[in-house]
Amino acid sequence: MFVHVNNASLIYQGAKYKGKYILKDVNLDLNKHEFTCLLGPSGCGKSTLLGLIAGFVLPSSGEILVNGNPISRPDINRSLVFQEYALFPWLNVIENVCFGLEHKLKNKEERCELAMRYLKLVGLQDHAEDSIAQLSGGMKQRVAIARALVVEPELLLMDEPFGALDDQTRGNMQKLITELWLELKTTIVFVTHSIDEALLLADRVIVMSKPDTGPYSHGEIKADLRIEQPRPRQLNQLSAQRRQIMDLLYQKENFDAAI
User: Fold this and answer.
1) How many domains does the chain have?
2) Averaged pLDDT, groups of 10, the chain, 259 residues long
3) Has residue 238 been placed in a domain?
4) CB neighbour list of residue 126: distance below 8 Å, 6 or more residues apart
5) 117 and 224 share one domain
6) How many CB atoms lie within 10 A of CB 12?
7) What is the pTM assigned to this prediction?
8) What is the DSSP letter of 145?
9) Which domain range does residue 259 map to?
10) Kind of pairing, strands 187-192 and 35-39?
């Protein structure tokens, strides 16, 4: 397996909930080139699990391996795209995309050439010299995706990257990331709380939940569903899978699905 999560647990370190589990005994295997969505309500541990895979935090017990190697810290081979874009406002578009290449390519001309290739992939080749302040929210997220992909990571981790966008822009970004994945076949782990988004994008949907709504409840994996429909998909083709996920999460009052 390309990503192997083996009995991984994470315990609160802060004083308020010290000793209580955030995630407990999580097991998950992900295949190379798969597009996987982590789906579930707020507070169920989706972003925490993504952070463990990224290496931002280490598990309290258990282990996580990528391509057979234990994760001990963040690595350029695991790129992360956030909801908040995390771009550098003092750099223009192409300089933002080039930023991650400085330790990979010493030649500035080569960095710019590769950055332009990825700007073309996300449709921003005509905005290479624009400042970040000139861009719309969707354009900023395209820059963030280009910057994450330009280093050609083994694994692209996306933490609700389209959650702050309006519906039309979100739909356009879903179409873009699907096209990029079909072309590049980068392994993607994508966090979302939207059932529809997960069904449109993923090969697999990992449904996460909390056993109860109390403050000491830890997140867990409730189901691992494979979505077989070819892309591009229409939601009316996915009603059975949608109902299955709704049934799994129906009792969760805090589940805010985009329906």
Assistant:
1) 2
2) 94 68 93 96 91 95 95 93 90 94 86 96 97 95 96 96 92 96 96 96 94 69 94 92 90 48
3) yes
4) none
5) no
6) 15
7) 0.92
8) H
9) 1-77+154-166+173-259
10) parallel
